[in-house]
Amino acid sequence: MSTLYNYIIAVLVSLYCFASVAAHAAQQPPLYELSATIDPAQHTIHGSARIIVQKGAACKIRIAALTIARLLVNSREAHPVQGIIDIRDMQSDALVEIEYSTSFAPDSAELKGDLLNSPAPNCISSEGVMLLHDWYPAVEGLCRYKLTAEVPGHFEALSESETTVVQTSKGMKVISFDFPHPLPGISLVAGTYMTRTETFHGIALKTFLFAEDRELADTYLAHTKRYIELYESLLGPFPYKTFAIVENRFQTGYSLPTYTLLGSQVIRLPFIVETSLGHELLHQWFGNHVYVNYAAGNWSEGLTTYLADQWYNHLKGSGAEYRKKILSDYMNYVTPANEIALLGFRGPDSYASRAVGYGKAAMVFHMLRMKLGDALFFKSLKEFIASCQYREASWDNLRDVFASAGKQDLKAFFQQWVDRKGAPAFAIAHAQVAFREGAFQLSFDIAQEKDYFSCSLPARIVTEQGEEKIQIETAAAVTRYEKAFTGRPIKIILDEQYDLMRRLADAEAVPVISAFIGNRESIVITPDQDEKMYRETARFFKAQGYAVKSEKETAYVDIEKTSILFLSDTCSMYRKLFAGGDLPTGGCVVKVSKNPLNSKKIVMVFKARSREEAAAAYRKIFRYGNYSLLVFEQGKISREERAVSEQGIVEDMHVAAEGIKTKSSLDLDAIVKDMRDKRVIYIGESHTTYADHLMQLEIIRRMEKEKRPLIIGMEMFQRPFQKYLDQYIHKKITEEEFLKKTEYFSRWAYDYNLYRDILQFARANAIPVIALNVRRELTEKVSEKGMDALTAGERAELPPDMDLSNEQYREYLKQVYYQHEQSKKTCFDNFYFSQILWDETMAHSIAEAMKQYPDARVVVLAGSGHLQYAWGIPARVQRLTGAARAVILNDSGQGVDKNLADYIVFPAAVSAPESPKLQVLLKKEKSGVVIEKVMKDGPAQKAGLKEGDIIKVIDNQVINDIDDIKILLLGKQRGGNVKVIVQRKQQDGMAQEIIVPVVL
Predict the structure, then answer these.
(1) What's the pLDDT band for 109 if we cut at 50, 70, 90?
(2) CA 875 to CA 191: how far, in whole Å?
(3) Does domain 668-905 bear CATH number 3.40.50.11550?
(4) Fewer CB near the last or first residue (10 Å), C or N of the chain?
């Protein structure tokens, strides 16, 4: 909703510069007498204009697309140049006379497909007349208008007017409109209206409604009276003797001097009287009484937004929430590429310009009110209205009035917020509390980005004994704050009421629809399944400028770089980000989440029950930019929700610690008994700590004694090798064959003795063992090159759905990643994907095993990092199966947190059984297994084995690879003897086989 003149004058500004306010004040504006005969049947206007331009004044008259029958200047024929009549340097008053005609067919009046309040085209039809711009020879700047319009007798008509005279002749009405003050333009609206008039505070309040909506008159008049009462108390008397609410067949929302023009669909919306009506009425003061000098920036929309939309929320106690919405819009729509200063704002030609001209400007007025106080703020506005009425005013006029009333220099304030682009972003850094000299000394830094602003930043310091509100003046990249408190500070909150124009911190930002709308690089992804259902929806978004890709065309890199809209939750990529996720039921559901691959972006899913439900909803989501969830039924909203976030920039200074009563403990028997009702038992490990594996075996042994079906899932084995695990457990192959066929030593590499007891126990008791892990080649490829590097065949091995939405787990993995040297060679996103792929594959393997063994309990053996806080595997199995679980972790040395696991055990240190070793480094070459290095004083050196020797046979077993040696040594005892046959190159270059006895 906005004044019509915002658009009209913005168009004119692009054609020529307006005269300054001072120039207009120095001379009388032209007198413009306009007569127009409207023929609805032919969709035409026949008009005549008489324009009197004062001696010495300059005047430009724009002809636009009018058909000119006659053009005289002081009775002499004249001709426009490039559609402009330029009057200047006249020695006497100039009389310009123009006879013209034009037509506006109703089919030209359909609204464009864009989603901003661009003005509807003019229209002349039997249903009504709407003439808003370019329907007469338009004069630059202000004119004193007198309009006479001839319309069909059954029409009611109105224009900017305080006095109206109606005459009827031959079935036609001739209506004379007189507005006694200069105007930047004039309009004409007519139709078959039911009218109503009431007087309030000396103002004639009118409604012009269609017959089917005439019952709305009472509601609109009652709310209009309420708004007049409110604004007269704040700003002074209503500017005009009359005000009308006018219904329109076209879906407009305009405010013009003395009336507002609302579309028929708009006017029926129940919330309009609580929101937009007051906004449009307030424009009678700002924009329609004090006009806007557009060449110097449009201040009117920001001021009206502040004292209407924001003010209504302020009166309800939700002003901070509304201002946060302003900042959210600014963050989601405005980028360095489309940012403008308030001086450059003419009208809302994009979501970005709207976020600046309406939102940022409203925040500037809020900061002025906070700076001056209510009394001075509203006193200044009254003086502004009185001094600038019926004139074009600028930001400079506002600055001067506020500075004068407050008796302070506001030049720097206006230069920073009006002349300059951008907004500050703040962060709290290096916050500390120290006890010094009987008090708690709080210190912290407020950091700004490099192009810092000068701001007075509201803050609240919460202590154990109360709280204190302060203002922190910051005018540098880093501002240090220090203060002593008697009670220990436990929380710092900056700008929690959103009193400052700024960029939201990450914790304050919520995933909302506007984050998609505002980024024209956002991508729409269409589903392979149900593509026809969403075809029209996709076509619409493409027309709005968004890229549209099919599921097959989409790569993970697309999601990493921008915001995404998935049409349907059946898209495989969506399922691999959020595991599909549960959506509410409804005709059409729109849900927004943070982008798991880029926390600065969002992922939105649009799911419809049918093509008709999709068609009824897709346009409407643009009206709900600050919502995170929408549910439509046949195009009507049945549910709407906003996600929650931090209120203000928060630093928590609590001392967090939890304790346990060490005497209250459980032994393994008690733990196993306590877990009897749990279907899945996760037992964590540090891979190289034998005590952890011994503890795993003991829990398995105790559970097996309960004689309930049991299966064991192991991270250490990969899914393609499941059949060899089955063969080993069923005693169809030997341990040596099992280790060779599962490629244990090359795929897991940890000492097999760590797991040998568990596998031997499972074999002895016929307990199925499930290979949980994804094939190593896939995780290594993803870690190195990313998900998009996988082939179609490799993608087929991936779980059908994956959940990447746990931000805490992502942050934990990021800490792990940067602790490793590998982080310098790869990128975190690839590492993160590989870990999620690892977790999800294991979770799906467990879920599949639970279906295969429906009566069995599952013991899962995995690294503690996959189990802690249930982030890695447990939560994913819960998602897939809903089964009750218990998580057991060993003492990891990271402290005891009640959320870390269900049970934490403290196994005593135990040395692992070790197989004897040759103590050599080996490498596999074409010639065989070569000794690369012989360890000093080891069995190999003592026996005389040398570097370069090729091991051919050990104890009559042919050695083909390194695994053969590791498996053979598993069955040997320390101190035992083996006979090693090696091939050794002699001095003459010939190879010779040598038998070397070795004592292990």
Answers:
(1) very low
(2) 64
(3) yes
(4) C
Q: Where are the beta strands (DSSP E) in 670-777?
A: 680-685, 710-718, 769-773
**Cα-based distances in Å from 843 to 144, 808, 941:** 77, 19, 47
Is the pLDDT score of 17 beyond 50?
Answer: no
Contact (Cβ atoms closer than 8 angstroms) between residue 871 and residue 803: no
User: What whole-number distance in Å separates Cα of residue 684 and Cα of residue 866?
Assistant: 8
Which of 31, 66, 28, 61 is CA-nearest to residue 47? 66
| Rounded Cα gap, residues 546 and 526, in angstroms | 12
Q: Would you say domain 514-641 falls under CATH 3.30.379?
A: yes
For 121-141, b/e burial (b = at least 16 CB within 10 A) is: bbbbbeebbbbbbbbbbbbbb
* DSSP designation for 896: -
The closest alpha carbon to 126, from 53, 211, 40, belongs to 40
Cβ–Cβ under 8 Å, residues 673 and 626: no
Q: How far apart are CA 949 and CA 959, in angstroms?
A: 13
| Burial of residue 592 (number of CB atoms within 10 Å: 0-12, 13-18, 19+) | buried
CB-count burial class (<10 Å; 0-12, 13-18, 19+) for 386: exposed
**Composition of the chain by helix, strand, coil, percent to 5:** 35, 30, 35
Q: What is the mean pLDDT of residues 317-327?
A: 97
pLDDT at 824 over 80: no
CATH architecture group of domain 291-419:
Orthogonal Bundle (1.10)
Where do we find the tokens 């329109």? 248
In 732-890, at which residue ranges do the beta strands (DSSP E only) sit?
769-773, 857-863, 885-890
In 3D, which of 966, 925, 932, 964 has the Cα closest to residue 947? 932
Residues 377-387, mean pLDDT to the nearest whole number: 97
Q: How far is CA 642 from CA 505, 623, 981, in A?
A: 17, 14, 75
Q: Which fold has domain 920-999?
A: Pdz3 Domain (2.30.42)
Question: What φ, ψ does residue 137 adopt, rounded to 5°?
Answer: -60, 110
- Checking DSSP bridges between strand 259-263 and strand 253-256, what pairing results, if any? antiparallel
Angle ∠(428,429,430) on CA atoms, nearest 5: 140
Query: How far, in Å, CA of 376 to CA of 374, rounded?
Result: 6
- Regarding the domain delimited by 2-192, which CATH topology (the fold level of the hierarchy) does it fall under? Immunoglobulin-like (2.60.40)
pTM of the model: 0.82
* Positive or negative torsion for Cα 893, 896, 899, 903: positive
CATH number of the domain at 426-494, out of 2.40.160, 1.25.10, 2.40.128, 2.60.40? 2.60.40
Q: Supply the DSSP string of 270-316, one letter for each residue.
A: TTGGGTHHHHHHHTTTBTTTBEE-GGG---HHHHHHIIIIIHHHHHT
Please give the pLDDT value at position 16: 33
For residues 742 and 721, the answer to whether their CB atoms sit within 8 Å is yes
d(CA 371, CA 118): 35
Q: In whole angstroms, what is the distance from residue 333 CA to residue 329 CA?
A: 6
Rounded to whole angstroms, how far apart are CA atoms 930 and 951?
6
DSSP E strands in 673-763: the ranges are: 680-685, 710-718
Whole-angstrom Cα distance, residue 264 to residue 250?
A: 7
Reported residue count of the chain is 1000
Residues sharing a CB contact under 8 Å with residue 842, sequence separation 6 or more, in sequence order: 713, 715, 772, 773, 774, 860, 862, 866, 873
Instruction: Confirm if 608 and 587 have CB atoms less than 8 A apart.
Output: yes
> In angstroms, rounded to a whole number, what is the distance separating the alpha carbons of residues 178 and 165?
9
Task: Yes or no: say if 544 and 538 are a contact pair by the CB < 8 Å rule.
Answer: no
Q: Span 442-466, mean pLDDT?
A: 94
Question: Do the domains spanning 2-192 and 514-641 agree at the CATH topology level?
Answer: no
Domain ranges of the chain: 2-192, 291-419, 426-494, 514-641, 668-905, 920-999
d(CA 802, CA 572): 10
